[in-house]
């Protein structure tokens, strides 16, 4: 079987065109990531002595690590005078003021505000806010308990468990992680590449009239189909993993840092309600796994659809349209937890699942949407794979033999 | 009509698919023989204008084909290797479409199609879809489309590949019939197809013309180099390993081998009359024979 | 038949090209009909009133028109005041019925078109920003026509199918060699190319024509000669183009883009000879720049995408404010006609080169002149690739009684609004225990922008409308862009189960997979909504401008002409309100018919299970009770009242004399 899978993989996916697309799409992705850095980050002003970039990293050395009252006081001691000096908007707008860090008071205030005060304030206040959530969850659980609403009680309990004790003890640079976690472009590249790779799996056998030959081979028929499914799975997983990895490398190289990966994921503002208590690095791994699951189930659907055609054109266009429908329905039904769980595309843009604490009721038990989505994806993917297996052509003699 | 190839070459990267091919063809059937990859299809594709040769000239009745340009194409009928055609078209529709491509006026096209379909015995199948035809019928559709413009030159690339013996014979007869007043270039590696109908044989090897001549002349060229040997099973196996065996028959535990070899392989070997298959084997088996360009 | 006819038959019949074209036309038309909403709903809702003003204002801005409009604004304000004063005087007996009728008749003359006035006044404010090229006209037709600014996916898919099939089908049945030996091989290839390009052109033109006809019939497309700046989306443009010319230009550009995409696909198909690779290159060359690049860059690339989108070529410059420095960041700079021309020429050159190469590749060597250079094709494709890179659930409900003026109470729970904290609490009536109405512990925890805006009770369900402002990353360097999401959540008081039954993004501009899409102003009213009620068919949102009905199935919005100054009551089918003439009125939500109760002149009312309690202005503001059909009035109290409120259990009136509350036990 391993041999069959190897040959199927080489036959279908080690083609020059796929490798060329891999290179072109990877370059496009890196180009886009660098574009994100250039357009979003305020630290792209070079390495001059008074540039934000230089000053930020100098100041960062002072404030990084555990958030202590001394650091907070020191930061506020530097920041408050700037706020006062600029509050009435009458401070000098000259950009070469020697008494300032960056050459301008407003710029100094903005630098401290954006990269130090706001994040540190968020980090500092987060534990209080999560404690408040935990308390409310405990009260709700008690209320639900009185009403006999078991499911709601369990849900509140789960929220309590998630939020009790959440803190962000250390200060770290979070800009790179922020943009990395909100980056989606590579998904479309992954989908296009996977679609192109997958589409030929069955169709190319028909185009080269190999399907008949396969059918009469001892290892042909369903055994080959199984090998094709597994080879396609491998391709889908590798492609998803590659782009997840490339995203991280791209962001790290563009922003010239890996700082912030050890922060808890809820240190990023739009992950304040994250449904997982893990570090950003762990989130990267989990996100890659979810992307793999999403790409796999979509890939299996494509594979199933492509089985019924003689050439690649129509299945490609139909699968592409299906993909667009999943993307648009994902955006249109973003409020429905069940829609999110059922739409495999949400596994690819997994921050809609991981960024918020949302549950679905499965048999009276609150299951986090990302967990439900991954279970649904695995079950649906398996069901589709089984359908592909049983719908694929089989040598009649073998069918008769099995029937006996 | 005289077709002259003058030093025609075609190169793919560093490998010559056709090297200084020079030959002259006049009326009749010309068999183009050669192993797989010898350059037969390259020669045909260059001649019909699908491929552009790197160097050399092709002349028809002394006129460079390049200068003939568009006027050259109505003179040729081409049947490609393993034709599939359009599965959804009916036979008649397809042939009428080919007539349109060959610039044959509509009324004339209808008559020509009917006439040719009758010739190849496909009148009953004219409304069938091409996808529903057998291999032999599809080949016959292929030769009909090649004959539509009543060309002076007919180029057939492996026309009998995959056909059963009766279809092959039927096809051979058709070619003989169409050969009247035409030059037919028939590329094949099924030697028996050209043995009886070809006026001359062109033997290609690694892009180079090895020989050109009538079948009889080619056979004469290797007279005394084809032997019949009778041997037991063990000896027969040994001889098969050592020599080029063109045929082997078993009769009552004894094997009769037909060996192509310059000298007598064993003392008891009997020289026999060579055939075209022996010629093919003799020249295509290895590099050691010095051969003249023409016989 | 000619070669062209056979090629037509092959592509359109045997390869079902005609089916795909018809499917695209049908799907686009159905989609357009199903999803179209008027760009300015007020213009459509009060069409007649708006048209009345337009007759007087139509055309360019003049000082006279502005003066007249300002006068009209003044007159309407005064008339509104006069109306309420007359009503007060009449119902308090200061003036006679005849005097009242006369005054109201005068007022009504002025107010006959007041709804239309609001629409026209907004347009006036827009025109005033640049009086030189912004004209008064009914903009709904043109604005709808120009609203298609995204990629038309049905057109895109059909182009992919048609153009990829043409040559790939020949390669798949190995007919390419045979065709090239035919004397008419060039003609065959030319027929294929010309036919495909003509069909794509016709399809794109056909779709444009359908849109033109649709908007022409639905809203009308008047005054095509007016400047394009009259439509808000082109407001910043400096191009001197009329509306009709702008549409023709856009259609022309889109047709060019479609044909260009088809040429690219033909070229790719001849180069790679495989269906899948052809289509993936076609999709990638369009979708990757569409998603990956800003509009600013997209409109500079000589690829089909900018022409397929086209609208940007006529738009003016736009910018956003940097969240940190407050400086403007240019998001899109206007394309000058010279730039457009240069791009067109460059694209046309690529286009011509590709067509030439396709024809050369399909021509017999003996027919073509000079030596073919295959690498040119590959290099051209490489260049193109490089350029493209650089660059609601419906639940059964019994529907209880709703009065917008009072908080709702059910047998078990009541909802209490805290004025100070501006939060809603749920009170268990048995135990008196208070809990937050939004039971989720996460509600509002990490966002100040999350709050409950209104509540509707329909036992055993409590519906509440929450509003949440979320941050998202936009494409111009600002993380702090926000989108407001308004949801209606159904809370089952028996199981405490919550379910979102309606949700909309109300702000425009949000990112979907990097594609910025505009949600328009359709749902903007939700931000200003302070009350709502619902039944199985519709949701009704109360704002200062009226009640907006949203059908639960197709989400179509309709503004109902219901004044929202006083109480609005609802019994599951009929909405009760006091109309502008102080008459208690019933509006049937099924038949959409309004029925004022001629004998019930009220200053306040409330709906109860027994009927309608109202303060009778015709009888010294005493409280009366009548049936839900307005008949059978019965005097309940002899004391004049200021207001009458029903909280689900009892009716309370506040006395005019001393402000005391008097309760009527039901």
How would you portray this structure in words?
Chain A is mostly helical. Chain A has two domains: 2-40 and 175-403, no CATH class; 65-171, no CATH class. Chain A is 71% helix and 3% strand. Chain A is built from 17 helices and four strands. Chain A has helices at residues 2-13, 16-40, 52-63, 69-86, 105-147, 150-163, 175-181, 185-207, 211-216, 221-255, 280-306, 313-332, 337-342, 345-348, 351-354, 369-391, 396-403; strands spanning 65-66, 170-171, 359-362, 365-368. The longest helix of chain A is centred in the first third of the chain and has 43 residues, at 105-147. Chain A is flat. The mean pLDDT of chain A is 86. Chain B has 295 residues and is α/β, with parallel strands linked by helices. In chain B, 33% of the residues lie in helices and 29% in strands. Chain B is built from ten helices and 14 strands. Chain B has helices spanning 40-48, 65-68, 91-101, 106-119, 135-147, 165-178, 191-195, 215-221, 233-242, 276-284, and strands spanning 3-12, 15-25, 28-34, 55-60, 63-64, 76-79, 153-157, 183-188, 200-205, 208-213, 226-231, 244-251, 254-260, 270-271. Chain B has a six-stranded mixed sheet with strand order 6-7-8-3-9-10, with helices on both faces. A four-stranded antiparallel sheet of chain B has the order 2-1-4-5. Chain B is globular, with a radius of gyration of 21 Å. Chain C is α+β, with helices and mostly antiparallel strands and 666 residues long. Chain C has four domains: 3-37 and 141-227 and 239-297 and 338-361; 41-138; 387-560, no CATH class; 570-666, Lipocalin (Beta Barrel), CATH 2.40.128.630. In chain C, 41% of the residues lie in helices and 23% in strands. Chain C contains 17 helices and 25 strands. In chain C, the strands form six sheets. In chain C, strands 3-17-18-19-20-21-22-23-24-25 form a ten-stranded antiparallel sheet, with no helix packed on it. A four-stranded antiparallel sheet of chain C has the order 7-8-9-10, with no helix packed on it. Chain C has a four-stranded antiparallel sheet with strand order 13-14-15-16. In chain C, a hairpin with a 5-residue loop joins β15 (546-551) and β16. The termini of chain C are far apart. In chain C, 42% of the residues are buried. Chains in contact: A-C, B-C. The B-C interface holds B 45, 48-52, 65-66, 68-70, 72-74, 76, 78, 80, 82-89, 96-98, 100-103, 106, 145, 149 and C 1-3, 5-6, 10, 14, 173-175, 177-185, 187-188, 364-367, 371-372.
